[in-house]
Amino acid sequence: MKTFKGKRILIVEDSRFLAQITANILNKYGYVTEIALTGEEAVEKVRGSRCPDLILMDIELGEGMDGALAARTIQQFRDVPVVFLTAHTQQEVVEKIRSVTGYGYVLKGAGEHVLVSTVEMALRLYEANAHANMYRRIFEDSLNEIYIFHPETLKFIAVNRGARENLGYTIEELSNMTPLDLKPELDLQSFRELLDLLVRGEQEKIVFNTVHRRKDGSLYPVEVHLQLFEHDGEKVCLALVIDLSERRRMEEELREREATLSAVMGSARDAIVMLDGQGNVTFWNPAAEQLFGYSREEILGKELHRLVVPEENQYQAYREGFQRFQLTGEGNAIGKTIELKAKHKDGRELDVELSLSALKIRDAWHAVGIVRDISERKRLEEENRRKEERLRQILEGIPSPAWLVSRDRRILAQNKAAEMVVGTKVGNYCWRSIHGTKSLPDECREAIEKSGTPLPGTKCYFCRGDEALDKNAPINSEVEFAGGIWDTWWVPLGEDIYLHYAVDVTKYKKMEEDLRQREEYLNLLLTSMPVGIITVDALSHRIEDVNQEAAALMGAPPEAIIGKTCFEFFSCPKGCCPVKDLGEEVDRAERILRRADGTQIPVLKTVRRLQTESGEKLIENFMDLTDRKKMEEELRCLSITDPLTNAYNRRYFMQVLEQEIERTRRTGLPFSIIMVDLDHFKSINDRFGHAAGDRVLKSLVDMIKQRIRKTDCLARWGGEEFIILLPNTPVDKAAGLAEELRERLSRMDIPGVGHVTASFGVAGYCPPDTADTLIMRADNTLYAAKAAGRNCVRYTGACI
């Protein structure tokens, strides 16, 4: 029998002898036990630093607290499962136990397997409750809205707190609503068509965008993820709803900024060209069309150097320099302004000034070039003015606060976000306006505090502006400052000017860390779960991964399992896979696991599909049912037998009797019943004690069992009264058997009691008897035997 080895059990029993017997049984199965003789002592032990995992509590303790009061006191400050010990099962005792705990009771003196099974069931129930509470908190505390509803009635089954708070409805209001009450854009027919795709199994999940309507009538955009699950034998629909309000706002802002930037770039008088990592043109503004003579349609996607470099030797030099740029983002011309010759479409040579910048997009270096015609000084002066204006416009296109900063840390220009969010001013030191003196090294800060004048080269401790200017390349780093994490950039725009901006990425870093922790938790959960889990390739059915529990259940190390097919270990109906071959989405059934040593054990196996980048997989988990099957059989036996005599109990007898009546009505075969009542049984208990009375009852049952057939059914009817069902037996033969049993009983010498007698009443089934009328006739004949002086047999005649 599998137990929770190492679990601590506190035994609360006022009899040290009985407590020690219980402790010895539990110790035998690997439990760690501790004994308390009073309720008060139990309360103190539970208050201590080492709380027990379960308490076995005598319901009827001696002096002081009784077991029920002690259990209630403990449960006020500790969540510990309590199983009661009792010698009595009267209604008032059972009700008293039920009022305190949901973990049941066990009779004193019950077999050790009953005791250990009850303890194990209580611990499993406690663990199941703990897991259920955890999943309930995950559902309720989710930041997204989660709805569970019935796919047929559409009534909500559960709605989490995030959804209730966003909608403004109470849980009582939502219980009478459906998803259509929240989705004004959908009608019943269109929503049914979506659900039918899930119900028919055509899609595992459906994602669509719509709007939700709050209780106050306001609408907000949402992204809805619908999935179908099976719960308690029926299908339910889960809707994960993501509020898109913030995303839509950000998308609109981004579109506005992109439109602004596009308008700026399109209206610029300087030629602006962007090259991808292969040197092909990806952006070509109208000024470039005018300067070089090529339209956008002609130039986009073409290699720029081949078209505008006039000489072949110059072209080869440009190509070599560009190959270096492709790898490093660096080059002799990057970040600088150079003069060179270019070629017009009509063959004319142009004197141009080129400013190049490097921009990394999706892990590839892109070149952004600004080209101006310098053939005339006026044009050069005008182009310089436009360059300054263009830089300011680029700043305004950056959504975060951004500045143009000189080498001496003076703010030359800034966007509106910098002015409104940070409050900086053009002309001030960037470190003073943006961060204050808190970001300065100690010596710089102390100098300012003493004299009010900054030291030469004063800058923030994390500033890399000089490095960006010296390398003539953008530099990026993450900076922890003011309680957040900032993605900070220093982008050189000339020899002594750089673009400086920072984006708050604290939220995204936290999301990355949360995701990493969740992945670690999932891996830990999979390796520590007491359930076997294997990953199987859906096409070949070969096992690709196993956890430790699966390897233990299959009886082989992981390396000996991986590569084999799942059919070598698991039996499948009709020799095919229910999920892959029969098209099921989920298969959950009891199967037989063939272990590596050839033994077979029953398991509960669940198989689900999983789509991965490497193809479809089957995730199969299974758990050993051996102990549960054994326990179920033991419980079944306990539920149908009398614990004292091991005869069947009254409830089971009534089931068998009803079945026999139905059989007789179909076949016409006779059957009879015998009611047996011990004579003067009360005087036996009074004279010799209840233990002697119990021996009499057991002796009577043993004697009857030795005589009757396996097909007959003997049950304890109540107290000293028993009843026997005799299939295929007419009443006269049943009466003969009753007389034989009476004689055997009267000749028995029961130790400590001597000879006893009993009265017998016999009745045969007569249509249209019911179970109640047949038992009543047998009971009447029993009373007739009593009235005739006891120790005799009376029976009714044949049916008329």
Gist of the model:
By secondary structure, this protein is α+β, with helices and mostly antiparallel strands. The protein has 6 domains: 8-134, Response regulator (Rossmann fold, 3-Layer(aba) Sandwich); 142-243, PAS domain (Beta-Lactamase, 2-Layer Sandwich); 271-397, Beta-Lactamase, CATH 3.30.450; 402-508, 2-Layer Sandwich (Beta-Lactamase), CATH 3.30.450.20; 529-626, PAS domain (Beta-Lactamase); 641-795, Alpha-Beta Plaits (2-Layer Sandwich). The strands form 6 sheets. It has a 5-stranded parallel sheet with strand order 2-1-3-4-5, sandwiched between helices.
Structural summary, described in words:
The protein is an alpha+beta fold and 800 residues long. The protein folds into 6 domains: 8-134, Response regulator (Rossmann fold), CATH 3.40.50.2300; 142-243, PAS domain (Beta-Lactamase, 2-Layer Sandwich); 271-397, Beta-Lactamase (2-Layer Sandwich), CATH 3.30.450; 402-508, Beta-Lactamase, CATH 3.30.450; 529-626, Beta-Lactamase (2-Layer Sandwich); 641-795, Reverse transcriptase/Diguanylate cyclase domain (Alpha-Beta Plaits, 2-Layer Sandwich), CATH 3.30.70.270. Helices cover 41% and strands 26% of the residues. The chain contains 27 helices and 30 strands. The chain has a 5-stranded parallel beta sheet with strand order 2-1-3-4-5, sandwiched between helices. It has a 5-stranded antiparallel beta sheet with strand order 7-6-10-9-8. Strand 27 (713-718) and strand 28 (721-727) form a beta hairpin. Helix 2 (39-47) packs parallel to helix 3 (67-75), helix 9 packs antiparallel against helix 14 and helix 24 (681-688) crosses helix 25. The longest helix is centred in the N-terminal third of the chain and has 30 residues, at 112-141. It is elongated. The model has no long low-confidence stretch (mean pLDDT 84). Pfam families: GGDEF, PAS, PAS_8, PAS_9, Response_reg. InterPro entries: Biofilm_reg_signaling, CheY-like_superfamily, GGDEF_dom, Nucleotide_cyclase, PAC, PAS, PAS-assoc_C, PAS-like_dom_sf. Residues 131-202, 257-312, 387-423, 518-570 form the PAS domain. Residues 370-397 form a coiled coil. It comes from Desulfofundulus thermosubterraneus DSM 16057.
